[in-house]
Amino acid sequence: MQQNGASSSNGSEGGGGGERQSPSRSPLLPAAATTRVRRFIQERRTLPLPKVMVVFSAAGDADKSSDAMAAAAADDDSQKPVATGVNRGKPSRCPLNAGQEQEFPEVISLNVGGSHFTTRLSTLRRYEDTMLSAMFSGRHHIPRDADGRFFIDRDGAYFGDILNFLREGELPHRERVRAVHREAQYYSIAPLLERLEDTQPLTGEKVRQAFLDLLPYYKDNLERIVEIAKLRATQKKARFAKLKVCVYKEEMPITPYERPLFNSLRFERADGSGGGEAKLFEHHCEVDVSFGPWEAVADVYDLLHCIVGDLSERGISAEQQCIGVCDKHLINHYYCKRPIYEFKITWW
Known about the structure:
11 helices, four-stranded mixed sheet, three-stranded mixed sheet, alpha+beta
């Protein structure tokens, strides 16, 4: 009985002691946090108090506060100036954005293949349907050189003639007409092209080309002359080469000794056996290249002038002279009689 009572009294005392030792804890604070607070309270008399603000919150509130701090940091970063990497002292090399137009001053400084020009913006925009007008319309980006001039990657030797026409309608001298015509084609200046094509030597070139169109094989034969002359000079290790060229015009034979009608003639003649059977006879002049026939007012000498001139345009020196006629007998009293010319092609 006593043991039970002692044990019950000890249990009650232990229970009472347990109740006295358990302080009232805040449901929001864990045990480790309570111990740190008690230690801080005990040491505040001897240690200096730092100016620290301690905030106790639940787990959900802590997440919210961390999100708020991250948002505040992002706001601070957004307020900092952003380095664009663009040097404001130099023009931008980036292409224009959609809807953005490049602005130009009234006076334009140009660098055309290393040649410098200065003109008004209105001069470059004189004709709308040209390449220069489109370039300086503001819709396209034009690069600049180191000195700030607008750069055009084109030979500037004849750009001054282009500007003179845009300014005053002035045409170049005759020896510059062909080169300026090529530049006008590049810049698509239709008014200048029309004016130049009505000027010598381009007008004469149009008439000459109308004659050469009667000989559709003309360019091929020209290439053949060059190839044969090159081959012979290479084989003989010679400075020049010679070749025979037949040039004849189409005419109806009036006498038995006139030139025949076609380049390659086909005749019917008896075989001499008395059977009366006819055989086809075909004739080719023994030359390297043949030009003809054609039907026009221009004669043989006009075509020879075209051949020598076109070879000279390619930097090939050519001389020609008549060395006789093709005297091959054709049929009955007909002979070929086509003129044969010797061409001398000098390579150096």
